[in-house]
Design brief:
Elements (H helix, E strand, L loop, with lengths): L1 E3 L42 E3 L57 H34 L7 H43 L8 H9 L3 H28 L2 H4 L4 H8 L4 H23 L5 H37 L20
Antiparallel strand pairs: 1-2
Helix pairs in contact: 1-2, 1-8, 2-3, 2-4, 3-4, 4-6, 4-7, 7-8
């Protein structure tokens, strides 16, 4: 861009009309070609003139359109029509959004955990019976000479039941830990919330010794509260709260915010079991006869409380599975009416 002061204007370019003088600020009237001075003060008029850059094309570039081709018909293939195409398939309806989450439904795993925990409870009761038999033989041995076969049978029964309880307890823990992780996330998703804890945090609360005494009860209580809120929400949608219970829905939701009695009893028994195991391990370090007798008594208590923990755990697992699967259907409140007559009575 350059400023043309009228000294060498292009001969093929007309003077623009209504130009304002830079000195006196007077708007110039239309004037004949070749006059490039102000009519008032005679100062040269300044204009911006655009010149093409050096070395550029001097003639305008015109785009040539390709020649139009005539339609010659569809393409021809040698040897007939090609066989490639989309594979044969049957169209299916898209499953609803709710069915997509059923693949991660932990209800079946919870039932397996419940059955294994129930078997563990029975084995713990048998182990407690074996320890009671051993303790009774110890009492009789203070005044009587015992049969060697009876003592060996008692020892074998105690050893077998102890191994069985340990193996079943380990199997229950292996099944319960991933199932509780899935249940914790599934329960949160059922009420439309994101899981409040990461899977790693849940596993640490269930596995770390000492911490799991509190953490296991914490995780089970959180699952119980969440599923109870889901049950109350389902009853509220169906209008069953006020009909079945005169308590207001707000009071029912307030009760759902607390843990159930079953969960609280399991947590108490879990803490007692951990304390008894620690006491049995410490007392078993003694070598006196009294220490041996006390250890047998503690083993009896450990087995009995373990049976309670496993039994309550089985009931809780079945309860969680029921709360996840037992949903009131949308047709439960429907009433089938008889058809109306087609002709007057």
């Amino acid at each position: 861009m350059t400023i043309d002061r009228g000294f060498a204007p292009p001969t093929d370019r007309r003077r623009p009309g209504y130009v304002r003088c830079a000195r006196c600020n007077v708007l110039q009237p239309p004037s004949p070609a070749g006059q490039y001075r102000c009519v008032a003060c005679g100062a040269p008029l300044q204009r911006w003139v655009a010149h093409p850059p050096p070395g550029g094309p001097t003639a305008p570039v015109t785009r040539t359109r390709p020649p139009e081709q005539r339609y010659l018909g569809p393409p021809a293939y040698r040897g007939g029509h090609p066989q490639w195409s989309f594979g044969p398939m049957v169209w299916h309806e898209i499953p609803p959004a709710g069915d997509a989450d059923r693949g991660d439904d932990p209800a079946n795993a919870l039932r397996w955990v419940g059955w294994v925990a129930a078997v563990t409870a029975v084995a713990a009761l048998v182990a407690a019976g074996a320890e009671i038999w051993r303790f009774s033989l110890m009492i009789q041995g203070r005044t009587l000479v015992l049969s060697g076969a009876v003592v060996r049978a008692s020892d074998v029964l105690v050893a077998i039941t102890a191994l069985a309880v340990g193996a079943l307890a380990l199997l229950t823990a292996m099944l319960a830990i991933p199932t509780l992780v899935r249940t914790h996330a599934a329960a949160a998703r059922q009420i439309g919330l994101a899981p409040s804890r990461r899977p790693r945090d849940i596993v640490l609360r269930l596995l770390v010794p000492g911490w799991n005494v509190y953490g296991a009860g914490q995780i089970v209580t959180e699952i119980d509260r969440t599923l109870d809120q889901l049950r109350v929400a389902a009853q509220d949608e169906e209008g069953e709260i006020d009909a079945a219970n005169p308590v207001s829905p707000r009071a029912v939701r307030r009760q759902a915010a607390h843990a159930s009695t079953l969960t609280i009893l399991w947590w108490i028994s879990w803490i007692i079991s951990a304390g008894l195991i620690a006491a049995a391990l410490v007392r078993g370090l003694g070598g006196s006869l009294q220490a041996i007798a006390d250890t047998v008594e503690l083993h009896i208590a450990v087995d009995l409380v373990a049976a309670v923990v496993a039994g309550l755990g089985a009931v809780i697992a079945f309860r969680f599975a029921g709360l996840l699967t037992d949903r009131p259907s949308e047709f439960d409140s429907w009433v089938v009416q008889p058809p109306e007559p087609t002709r007057p009575a």
